[in-house]
Every structure is written in structure tokens, then in C-alpha cells.
Amino acid sequence: MSKKNKNKSQHQGDLAKSIIDILRKEPGKTFNHKQIAAKLGVNDATSRNSIIKKLAQLIAKKQIEEEERGKFKISRKSNDYYNAVIDMTTKGYAYALVDELEDDVFISPKDLNTAFNGDEVEIYIYNRKRNKKSEGEVTQILKRKRTEFVGVLDMQKDFGFVVIGDPKMYTDVFVQKNKMGDAKNGDKVVVEIEEWPEKADSPFGKIIQVLGTPGEHHTEIHSILAQYGLPHEFPKEIEDFADEIDTSIQPDEIKKRRDMRDVLTFTIDPADAKDFDDALSFRKLENGNVEIGIHIADVSHYVQPGTILDDEAYERATSVYLVDRVVPMLPEVLSNNACSLRPNEEKYTFSAVFEIDKTTKVVNEWFGRTVTYSDARFAYEEAQQIIETEKGEVPEGISIQDKAYTVKDEIVEAVLTMNKMAKKMRSARMRQGAISFDKVEVKFQLDEENEPVGVYFKTAKDANKLIEEFMLLANRKVAEFIGKREEKKTFIYRCHDEPDEEKLVSLNSLVSRFGHGLNLKNRKTVSSSLNQLLQDVQGKKEQNLIDTLAIRTMSKAYYGTENIGHYGLAFDYYSHFTSPIRRYPDVMVHRLLQRYLDGQPSAKEEEYEEKCHHSSEMENLSTNAERDSIKYMQVKFMIDHQDKEFVGVISGVTDFGIFVEIIENKCEGMIRLRDIKGDHYDFDAENYAIVGRKTKKAYQLGDEVIVKVKNADLVKRHLDFTLIGKNEE
């Protein structure tokens, strides 16, 4: 084809696309050829004739329709239009995730048409490809994921721009002077997008909250909450409503409940816990079995449907645990007082009571509302002391009472008996194929100013596992009690699907670099080899990396009314019953359980499915906020250690740099390829490595390296490292 003809055909293609673009932007509207010419900014006879010809061709191809003589509109071929969710990249383009299609659809920046990350949109696929990603464009926005964003105000004379901190946000927001409120230049703010006029480069918005000066502790913590749309305090009317609730224990209410105040009951929680939502009771029976009660704060007694308190708890759906604070789901008068099972106080509880034989088989079960009295409160460390010494002496260094003391014999016996039972129950779960994720938790020692002065790791010991096993038992048995009925009842299950096979294959090739392996033959071999892997890496340099990667291969657990079982725990039925102070699904489970105990008909499934979806969404947001607050604190911690050299493990390799996780404090940062001195490094994707062109020196995933902090950005929560070299020890 001659260059001239090639240009002509390209022009024709561009014209077709331009016409389709005009019609598609207003899908319900018709245009004549003059209106199309005006939109294209042409008015000469040649151009108009080209448009008329092109319109005829597009009708022949059924891409457009002639609704009435000379009036054209887009043809809505159902196989070209789809509803999708936008997944932005940090590079400015996006992928549209379409349920009906196996592959995502590529959306270039010019085809986004104001869509943001997470928006529900309609897309039109204009270029279908066989072996590569099809290309499409956003035709309309069906539902914005969010309209509020966190950013920094850059003020000009009569207007300003808010530069958004989210790397997936490709535009700043224009703000007129009268929509800035009290914000000053350089402030971190929350901006609400109000509109995006057709010819404007940026959307228009107004500042709705000033968070403070970037880099300051409270500004950054509040901006993490604001970024995920999470509240940081209760509205006054909610606090007032909660304060008015009668939280006293009434004789007529006690009569409606099973009275278990005379049964030995105690709580085991973290030393710094403020709310105790679960307690255990223990009683030996004459037949040699034991009766164990799992008693949960009766939140649904106080939080009634249809109240503003219930609406607020539902909206929040979960408490959020940030590094330096908890943002509770319920006001303090309930979470720390009325619903907290504090020692030497009578409380309303919702209980699962089991008679268990010597083989840890449940031979009898009872569920219902109770009144209980906690005889003692222990921190995990105190209970651990009892388990390890098999005695009741708690030394001053461990005691939360600030003095050494002796635990009653009957409690010591209860703790030791339950620990033995928990171990049997745990090993039975493992034999069933449960997966043991004992991931190390990073914790910070903070001073009074919330400055991190140290890092420590929290690991689960026997006392933690004792509580975990009995909570799992209650959650599983409650789910079975409803789920196994012949007549189906609407209920809330905690669901966990099997891992994705592709992810398991890539995990296997990754761990093989460290000399480990997985057996992917069937479900049972996958579980047991995963457990073996997690056990083998304990205490090794690659532990945190492999723990993290193994967790990423797992599906995400979610709430749903359709039970599919829980893969990770190897349970056919599982629910959340044990933490209603901090999780709304547990409140709903209590209500539904009581409803069915009262013999009432099944609740509406659609209503609860929607509530499950909301709860899962809020759980994801809160997990992200928690993760961001840890990242923020890690960066803050590293700012004070900029002169120190650290040993780290290469935890990720990309085409622009390598990620390194410091062994002693789990802080992760990046070394950019362009910053590595002495050679030019290329990315070797197959071997998860970078290789020097001249020296052929390779840095591979899992290698130990020595690094120093190059740059610590509190606002972006990002660390840059300088590579000193390999750790040759």
C-alpha cells in the first residue's frame, strides 16, 4: 500500500471512531450529519461528504442505527457492551473486570471518560483480540466507588488544586476559592468531587475536611481513616443514645435466661485489652465428662434493630485496629462497660455450652441467652505461665495486677484441662486438612507522643491457641446447628474457597528457590504440604516472605448466606459468633440464632446477603487501613535509623527495582534499579532476579542483602533503600 493510501485508510478509520465516539457518549440521543460535523469542528463540503459516506458504511456494519431519516444513533449490540468494575494501574491506564468475560479488558487513559478506580461502569469493546487483551472504553459511569479523596492543597491566587495521594488516582481536583473552607496552602484535606465539566482537564470539588499538616502523626492517622472512608469518632446523637441505654442487670431479665453465675468463669485476653467479649466456663460432670461454656457478650440485647445505634454499627460493620488506637464499632459505654465481661461483674451473655468427653467429642450442646459472672481476668502471658509451670504462681513481671499472686487451684485445673483438650482439637483439625497460619505480627512500642521506640513480634503460644480452639468450636457448632437443618434457614456463614490452582503453582516455583516444595496432587496433599512448608520456614530468614506469599495464594474469606464451607479451617460449616463487640456479622448471627431458637420462620435471604456483602467490604477497608497504619509506623521508625546498616531479604523483584524486607523489624523498602551503582541491572522475570550487564552479578528473590535508608516518606508511607551489597556472612 502506498504511503498516501495508507494515510487515507488511517484517516477513514479515525473518522469512523470519531463518529462512534460522539454517538456513544450520548447513547439515547440521535444526531444528523451536520450536528456530527459541528461536533468534529469541520464545516467544509468535502468533510461533510466523508461523514455522510462513513455513516452509510457504519449502518451497513450495524455499528450505528438510522432511527428516522437522516438521524443516527449508536447501535446497542449486546455483545459489545458490558457492565464492569474499573481496576486502575498506577501508570494511568486501567483494566475493566467483566464477570462474563474470562479476560480483563484494557482501557487506555483517553478511554476512561472520568472513571476512577473501583467505579462500576458500562464499557464498549471496540477492539476484540484473540490472544491479547481486548480494548474498550467507558461509555457511562453507573456507580462511583467513592467521591471523597485525601490529598494536599496546592493554593493559587484565586483557586487551588488538591493533589491526591492515592497512586491509582490519575488527576488532581480543581477547587474554587469559595469552596476551600478553612484550608491553607499545603494542608492535607479531604476533597469531595462534585462534577467533571466536559471540557475541563480536572474534576471540580470542594474541601469538606482539613486533616492538618502532612507528616504530623494525627494528620497521617486521620488521613488513613479518611482515605478508606472510615469514621474516627461517633456523632454526638449516637453517644447520647448509647448513654441513655439501661445497662443495669434486672431480676425480670435474669428470669428469661439460663443462670450460670455460680459456674466457674474467667476471661483470657491481651494484657492491654479494654473490651472482653468472650469468657469460658468450666465444670466437671459426675459422668467424667466436662461442661465448657463459651459465653459471648449479649450485644444484641442492647443494640436493637431500627435504632440509630444499630444503623451506625451496621455502617461501620467492624472495629478498626490501627497502630496507636482502636476505632470501635460501638460507643465506649457498651464496648468497654456494659458488653465487656469484666471480672466480678454480672453480665448478660449469649452462650454455647458443650458437654465434652475425654476424646474431645461433643456429646451434648446447648445455645441460648444466659447471665454469667466472671470470677477472674487473665492476660495471655499469665495463662501461659500457668500452662508452662502447671502451678498457680504468677510472678510480678508477668502479672497485670502489678504484684505477684496465686491463682485458685480450681482455675489452674480448668486452664490445664482445657489446654490439653485444645491441643487434641487442634491436631484433629490439622488431620482434617486445616492450614496453620501462625503469621508473625509486627507490634510497636510507642512512647507518650506515639513515637515508635521499638519493634517486637507477637507470636501465638498455647494460651492464645486454647482460646482460639474454643472460639472455633463455638463458631462451627452454631453454624452446624442452623446449617444442618432439613428446612433451610437464612443464616450468615464465614466462607473460604479453595486456593486458586495457578497461584499454588507459582507459589511452588517460588518456594523451590529456597529448597522447599508443595505437593499439588489433591486437596489433602496441598494442605499437608502447605503446613509442612509453614513449619519448615519457622525462624528462617525467609519465614515472613513465605508466610505472606502463602497467605496471598489463599482465597479471601467473606460473609455469605450460601454456605460453601471454610477451606483454611477445614470446616464444612463455619460462622462468626464470638466477637459481636467488634464485628457486626456476629450481632446478626446472634439475632438469627435467637429467632430460630424461638421457632420463628426463616429471615429474608436477599436482605442478609446484601448485609453480608457490606460487612465483607468494610472488613477489607479496615484491613487495608490497619496495614497502612503499620507501614506508616515502620517508615516513622526507620527515619530515626537512617545511619544504620540493616540485613534484609529480597522480598520482591520488578522491572524498576527490588523490594527488601529488613529481618530484624520486618520493614519493607525499595531499591530502584537506576540507583544501584557499578553496573546496569536488567530484570529477569523467570528467575525472580536482576542481573548486571557487565558483571553478571545477580540479586535474586530471597537473597540476603545489606541496605541503608536512602529516603523515608511519611506522607506516601514509602521507604527507599540504598544497596550496600550482598550479605556474605
Largest sheet strand order: 13-20-19-16-15-14-21
Strand content: 25-35%
Q: Kindly provide the radius of gyration, computed on alpha-carbon positions and rounded to a whole number of angstroms.
A: 30 Å
- What is the mean pLDDT? 91
Q: What number of domains? A: 6
Distance between the termini: 64 Å
Briefly note the structural class of the backbone.
alpha+beta
| Poorly predicted residue ranges | 1-10
Plain-language structure description:
The chain has 729 residues and is of the alpha+beta class. The termini are far apart. A seven-stranded mixed β-sheet has the order 13-20-19-16-15-14-21. 32% of the residues lie in helices and 28% in strands. The radius of gyration is 30 Å and the shape is globular. Helix 1 crosses helix 3 (45-60).
Structure keywords:
alpha+beta, Arc Repressor Mutant, subunit A, OB fold (Dihydrolipoamide Acetyltransferase, E2P), five-stranded mixed barrel, 28% strand, exonuclease, exoribonuclease II activity, nuclease, NA-bd_OB-fold
Secondary structure topology:
Layout: H1 3-25, H2 33-40, H3 45-60, E1 64-68, E2 71-74, E3 81-88, E4 94-97, E5 105-107, E6 120-127, E7 135-143, E8 148-155, E9 159-164, E10 173-176, E11 188-195, E12 204-212, H4 217-227, H5 236-244, H6 251-255, E13 258-259, E14 265-269, E15 278-284, E16 290-297, H7 299-302, H8 308-316, E17 320-321, E18 326-327, H9 332-338, E19 346-356, E20 362-373, E21 376-379, H10 380-389, E22 393-394, E23 405-406, H11 409-432, E24 441-446, E25 452-458, H12 462-483, E26 493-495, H13 501-511, H14 523-536, H15 543-553, E27 558-560, H16 584-597, H17 605-639, E28 646-653, E29 657-662, E30 668-672, E31 681-684, E32 689-692, E33 698-700, E34 704-713, E35 718-726
Parallel strand pairs: 5-7, 10-12, 13-20, 14-21
Antiparallel strand pairs: 1-2, 3-4, 3-6, 4-5, 6-7, 8-9, 8-11, 9-10, 11-12, 14-15, 15-16, 16-19, 17-18, 19-20, 22-23, 24-25, 26-27, 28-29, 28-34, 29-30, 31-32, 32-33, 34-35
Helix pairs in contact: 1-3, 2-3, 4-17, 11-12, 13-15
GO biological process, one term: mRNA catabolic process
Enzyme class: hydrolase
GO molecular function, one term: exoribonuclease II activity
